[in-house]
Amino acid sequence: MHEIDLNKIIDRCDLVNDINISNSKITYLKKKIRVEKINIDKNLSKLINKRSGKYISLLFEDVTDIDNRNNLVNVLTSELNELLNEKHLVGKSSLVVGLGNNLSTPDSLGPKTIDNIITTRHLFLTSKLDKNYSSVAKISPGVFASTGIESYDIIKGIIKEIHPNFLIIIDALSSTNIKNVNRIIQITDSGIDPGSGVGNERKELSKKSLGIETIAIGIPTVVNLHTIVRDLLKDYNVENVLKNDNNNYLVTPKEIDFVIEKLSFVLSKSINNALHKLTK
Amino acid sequence: MHEIDLNKIIDRCDLVNDINISNSKITYLKKKIRVEKINIDKNLSKLINKRSGKYISLLFEDVTDIDNRNNLVNVLTSELNELLNEKHLVGKSSLVVGLGNNLSTPDSLGPKTIDNIITTRHLFLTSKLDKNYSSVAKISPGVFASTGIESYDIIKGIIKEIHPNFLIIIDALSSTNIKNVNRIIQITDSGIDPGSGVGNERKELSKKSLGIETIAIGIPTVVNLHTIVRDLLKDYNVENVLKNDNNNYLVTPKEIDFVIEKLSFVLSKSINNALHKLTK
Amino acid sequence: MHEIDLNKIIDRCDLVNDINISNSKITYLKKKIRVEKINIDKNLSKLINKRSGKYISLLFEDVTDIDNRNNLVNVLTSELNELLNEKHLVGKSSLVVGLGNNLSTPDSLGPKTIDNIITTRHLFLTSKLDKNYSSVAKISPGVFASTGIESYDIIKGIIKEIHPNFLIIIDALSSTNIKNVNRIIQITDSGIDPGSGVGNERKELSKKSLGIETIAIGIPTVVNLHTIVRDLLKDYNVENVLKNDNNNYLVTPKEIDFVIEKLSFVLSKSINNALHKLTK
Amino acid sequence: MHEIDLNKIIDRCDLVNDINISNSKITYLKKKIRVEKINIDKNLSKLINKRSGKYISLLFEDVTDIDNRNNLVNVLTSELNELLNEKHLVGKSSLVVGLGNNLSTPDSLGPKTIDNIITTRHLFLTSKLDKNYSSVAKISPGVFASTGIESYDIIKGIIKEIHPNFLIIIDALSSTNIKNVNRIIQITDSGIDPGSGVGNERKELSKKSLGIETIAIGIPTVVNLHTIVRDLLKDYNVENVLKNDNNNYLVTPKEIDFVIEKLSFVLSKSINNALHKLTK
Questions:
Q1: What is the 8-class DSSP label of residue C122?
Q2: What stretch of H or E contains A169?
């Protein structure tokens, strides 16, 4: 009987929480939400195969509970405010991007969040708004397999035409741990690889590739089947029972449509709050 | 080390193909579609925990291929015609029902099929149509967790008001074998349990409970995670690695949105053909 | 030159506000919302061709303004509470019905409102909820031309199966006055004729026809083209310039999609408040 | 009593058929579809306030009839083939753009057509397709009031990144004649002004502004209310009865949702045929 060679199965994971890191992490609890902050420097970046940058994770319980949800909006708004402040982006013009496929429930987090983002750029073009508002535009670029155009090309093209000061990108992520699904919001200034979680390599979306500050906000909504199976078997001396095509199967909670609706509400409300100072 | 007690994990499966039956099956190949027909009598019914009745299964390859898809429409139309003929339902009035949740991609097969069913009942109420058409009405009752009403109650209520001669019910099923997902159309006159595949027990929809002939057409679009895990482990003497909540996770192919679109096209086109004699 | 014979053009209107009534009306202003209450008795009913019963109209300004919108939610919640109280329906079980066509923007008010109604009937079937909640189920029956089934038959059928204590029916109305479009919420206990505003006669939905208290909540979202044309010409001695087919054209404000979203928010939030005592 | 000064009301119209032109027009009947071709040169362009270029109009009867619809697909495919051939665009790479608002039924023609456009650009990037296929990408840029970004900026940006050889742009138009609504397909190489029909001036989309051949395909789906009213009154010496805000009201046929579905089918099928030589 052979050991499974775990190294042969290279897992893509979008979540820094999926990796055990001994590095110094800042951790605190705010309104029952656990906040973890870590900076991944170049050395660590190579070691764990995650882009270097700042990672803020909000760990929460069941978001279908209204109290949890309101707490989450409060904490996310406050963390976004802090990040925008740190990066001198308060009041600056932004483009909010919702990655993903509106027709596939677990992948619809980005487009569904975009639906409720309040845009103001068209109003700023003709008049002056209240100083609480900043100029916000938005786009859901769709998916490569449908449009035939990479998200990168659409976003890069729009940036060149309308020159926003920074990007906020929302995407559904994949996790290697089923316990993290729909339980973590990850904010990072290191950018994102569209579709990376589901194994489709695309041009990265980042400050480096796009030329402007890029804040990515993601929530894991799926796990690859082969990841779960490997994980379940890791303590046993069993042969590799993985079928190759397991890589093409996704695992989601049954009630995913209901949860996505609540998660997209949390993201759109918090982003609107942070960009427009709608609440203190 | 303990053996896994498979009996403790009671799998619900909607597909007769998931069960090994030695009984006499009629099997033939038509336009590359494998057709399997089996009658489950009362004795067998108890043995395998499937309702007694006639089961027709169409086994096919990738439905995103246009030739496969057209073949499938031809074979399904012809099998439906034969069944309607056998049951003396040709030209009789029908209610076509699409079970499932339009907001959850793998569960949206029923509602998406209903979108393209051609209804004529409203026209028959005021005038006489061409004899090729039969009176057809349709409904997507939604899901219990959303409407607060069981599909059974909605359908039973409508039947009492409009008195159709028979029902056609479309539903996404769950399989115990990932190889069957999106690869089998199962037609049966034995009725259906809404949501049974995903573990939510509901009042059965059948000739017995509803009082009229009930033809159920289903396609497996998901597998429960715990089924897959158990299946993968069945040849190994390993401990039960299943987490309880695995029962709440569904496994679907990544490209499910695209496949559901094609499958719902096949079902609606074939049903329209059979009910309205749109093609010979 | 002939006078236009206005009597030959029989307008259907859904709004009591479209008719000049000298009868005693109770009128007051609450948070900038004008509330008008009138009882139409049998005599008046014949005279003006409106069903007898209680009519409560809320007249408001632009609902896309957030302050107007919040005021409207407050006043509508309070009027609904008062009506439920008067009719001894507080805490009783209800079925909320959204009439109309989700695919046609001005007619989608009912289905869009239903999307956000909080249902509890399925929870009450298995457990006891907090006393603030009442048992609520919901349905969007679709439109006759699509389903082939009259809304009446679907609703009547469901009532017989699940026995709610009362109905709340939401529908987009038509007005004869373009100034009323998207500016009035009409609540009545006299029931509703589905599709009446757009000239499609259907079985009435009322306490009389359905057997249980029926509260209809409607908002005019369209005007028939021929009504507007006639109205514009009424002071001139011109020939009848109306084309017959003008009766098949509807007039809506350009920004109807945006307004419907806000109006359906107001209705669903107020109904949820009133049925579940979510706010005081 | 004053005459109405028609000149003071400048109507925007998108249809060349709305204008009486005595110039030489090529006209023929093909499968019951009337085809009209006209070249507008610079002089005529100034006179009638329409951009210069080639205009091909297909005039047809009720598209909800299946025979009319199939005829229309045949004729449109053939006219598109001829135009692509003339302009040496056969086999060249294209970007298909659907302008308009998916949430507003009469304005959803563009996005709904895009839904069914077959894209291949992503496949060409990794492999060689059958020579019948050309490289096709697609985008629905959404509307300015929602995204805060002009369609021009999105399209221009994408063109710069992916360099298609030509554009096909689909848009719902407005007409000044209610008889033309849903009865004409207009193809032109002169470009389009997004939202012009409904009075919102935007940057033009044309070969001149975008740098590549731009074929616009439009169908009138609305008429402005004030246009209809003025039209009805033009033979009478009556005062201007137009209210200013009539400019904000649109007139559509009642059954617009059903017609848009059929029209978008005709457009997507014909464009797919022409770009991919799917039928001869």
A1: H
A2: strand A166-175
CA distance to partner chain D, nearest, from residue C131 (Å): 39
Nearest to D228 by CA among D11, D69, D68: D11
Partners of A34 in the β-ladder: A29, A59
Which pTM value belongs to this model? Answer: 0.91
Q: What is the pLDDT of residue C198?
A: 47
Chain A interface, Cβ < 8 Å to B: 101, 103-105, 145, 178, 198, 225, 228-229, 232-233, 235-236, 238-239, 241-242, 248-258, 261
- To 5 degrees, how large is the angle CA C105–CA C110–CA C113? 100
Show the tokens assigned to A233.
Answer: 């078997």
Task: Check: CB of residue D154 under 8 Å from CB of residue A147.
Answer: no
Name every chain C residue with its beta carbon within 8 A of the beta carbon of B139. 142, 147, 149, 154
The string of DSSP codes covering C43-67 is HHHHHHT--SEEEEEEE-S-TTSHH
pLDDT in tens, B95-152: 999 999 999 999 999 999 999 999 999 999 888 788 889 999 999 999 999 999 999 9
Question: Do the chains contact at C233 and D251, CB–CB below 8 Å?
Answer: no
Are B251 and A254 a contacting pair at CB < 8 A? no
**What's the complex ipTM?**
0.90
A142 to chain B: which residues are within 8 Å by CB?
none
DSSP-H helix ranges across chain A: 42-48, 66-86, 109-115, 121-126, 144-147, 151-162, 207-210, 225-233, 256-276
Between CA A68 and CA A64 the distance in angstroms is: 8
In this complex, do D121 and A154 lie within 8 Å of one another by their Cβ atoms? no
Q: What is the pLDDT of residues C152-164, one digit of tens each?
A: 999 999 999 999 9
Contact flag D144-A122 (C-beta cutoff 8 Å):
yes
Enumerate the residues of chain D whose CB falls inside 8 A of the CB of residue C225: 225, 228, 251
Complete DSSP assignment for chain D: -PPP-GGGS------GGGS---S--EEEEETTEEEEEEEE-HHHHHHHT--SEEEEEEE-S-TTSHHHHHHHHHHHHHHHHHHHHHTT-TT--EEEEE-S-TTSGGG-HHHHHHHTPPP-HHHHHHS---TT---EEEE----HHHHSS-HHHHHHHHHHHH--SEEEEEEEEEES-GGGTTTEEEEESS-B-TTGGGT-----BSHHHHSSEEEEEEEEEEEEHHHHHHHHHTTS-------GGGGGEEEEETTHHHHHHHHHHHHHHHHHHHHHT---
Q: For residue D21, is pLDDT > 80?
A: no
For residue B232, give the nearest of A103, A229, A250 by CB distance: A229
The subunits that touch chain A, with at least 3 C-beta pairs less than 8 Å apart, are B, D
Q: Count chain A–chain B contacts defined by CB atoms under 8 A.
A: 79
Q: Distance, in angstroms, between A267 CA and closest chain B CA?
A: 19
Give the pLDDT band of residue A50 (cuts 50, 70, 90): confident
Q: Which residue of C lies nearest to D238 if distances are taken between CA atoms?
A: C236
